[in-house]
Amino acid sequence: MNRHWLRKIQPEEVHAVAAMARADQHELIAPSHVFTKDGQIVGYASIAQVPLVLPWFDTRKCKARDSLYFINACENLVAECMAPNQELICVPFAAGSPFEPHIEHLGFVNMGKVNLTLKKVK
């Protein structure tokens, strides 16, 4: 019988899980839990470890400098609320966004193209 579990990651497991993820062409980003199947680690999850900021700026009323100010204000606010072990934020930019050519200059690491999905759970 297969047994599937989701449990908190142990500090001593982080390096091994990172190596497993890299071997499968994935990055390890703020893991909080591991998925196990039949007692073996088969994946990880980052649950509520990286604050998500979803900004929108009116392209008719905001200039680039305004947007940079607002993003910085969000970063500062999130940093004030973070736990000591947190250090990342996630700010998705839409394809074609005026920020796209400047993402790395702003200090962000482009994680590549992904589909960001939402689902009601309550």
Structure description:
The chain is α+β, with helices and mostly antiparallel strands and 122 residues long. It has 2 domains: 4-45, no CATH class; 50-116, no CATH class. It is 23% helix and 13% strand. The protein contains 2 helices and 3 strands. Strands 1-2-3 form a 3-stranded antiparallel sheet. A hairpin with a 2-residue loop joins strand 2 (33-37) and strand 3 (40-45). The longest helix is centred in the middle third of the chain and has 18 residues, at 64-81.
* Lateral strand order in the biggest sheet: 1-2-3
Rg from alpha-carbon coordinates: 18 Å
H/E order of the elements? EHEEH
Residue share in β-strands: 5-15%
Approximately how much helix is present in the residues?
10-25%
Number of helices: 2
Tally of DSSP β-strands? 3
SS content category: alpha+beta
Mean of all residue-level pLDDT scores:
89
The total tally of domains equals 2
Shape: elongated
Taking the alpha carbons of the first and last residues, their distance comes to: 30 Å
Biggest beta-sheet profile: 3 strands, antiparallel
Outline of the structure:
The chain is of the alpha+beta class. It folds into 2 domains: 4-45, no CATH class; 50-116, no CATH class.
Can you give keywords for this protein?
single chain; 122 residues; alpha+beta; 2 domains; 13% strand
List the SSEs and their pairings.
Elements: E1 4-8, H1 14-23, E2 33-37, E3 40-45, H2 64-81
Antiparallel strand pairs: 1-2, 2-3
